[in-house]
Amino acid sequence: MDEFFKKLPFLDSVLKGIGQIMLQENRWTGLLFLIGIFMGSWQCGVAVLLSTAAGTFTGMKLKYDKSEINAGLYGFSAALVGVALAFLFETTALIWILIILGGALASVIQHFFIQKKIPVFTFPFIIITWVLVFALHHFTHIPPSEMLSAEVIPSKYDDFLTCTKGFGEVIFQGGILSGMIFFLAVFISSPIAALYGLAASILGAGLSQLNGEPIKEIHMGLFGFNAVLSAIVFSGVKKTDGLWVLIAVLLTIVIDDLLIDNHCLDAVGGVFTFPFVAGTWITLFIQKIFIKPKA
Description:
Blueprint: H1 2-7, H2 9-19, H3 27-40, H4 42-61, H5 66-70, H6 76-88, H7 93-115, H8 123-139, H9 146-149, H10 158-170, H11 176-189, H12 191-210, H13 215-219, H14 225-234, H15 239-261, H16 274-290
Organism: Chryseobacterium phosphatilyticum
GO molecular function: urea transmembrane transporter activity
Site (Important for channel permeability): 273
């Protein structure tokens, strides 16, 4: 199969870009993510393909570093822009155009920060999506997608499934199978990252419940997905890695709950992955203070 992908380098980069949503440079992870997204919504699946392809194609045309393109670094923020717009709005012609343009713009912004050696993670996706959601709400009459109004039916397994739903909500998928597939997709690439992410999802759900957050939203994974990403960033086999995972996850959960409770970002569509980015930035800053570089 590796030979197959060598003959189709663009497809390989697109799949790796989708995999990089959870920081995995793995085509099979990306393919499983794509399957899980299509299981939740064909619109979201097509949107992810279009936006990731647009971001990757933009990187190629602007002659960005080939190894960075091949690693999928110009695809993951683009992918999230696409799935977010398809999840939030009815997919009119304008939305499809914005999915492609947003994916291309995400690639340009990502490149700027890569050149500056600034680890921004999904920040390009956040900024673009906030701006587009604000503009679409204020200057168009495009209705919300049916997915937003879909009723979530409680089940007796909700407490158990909340941990994997934290994985699903990273890519706007609330389905049980999608969450399980996303967890498996990370596990085949990095078992330690998947297990740390699972623990972080449980911790996010538990602490948010203690904080009095709505149990329905906790069961949907909405208070776990940012913690999942923060855990994956710092995951590793060293004992100290566990400490940094814990610090990042706790910071992320606190930021997430504060922003949601105070409705700080409702006007631009919600917090998205900003708590993950903010929590990770703070943790990296703390690391810089306490960990001295080797001479």
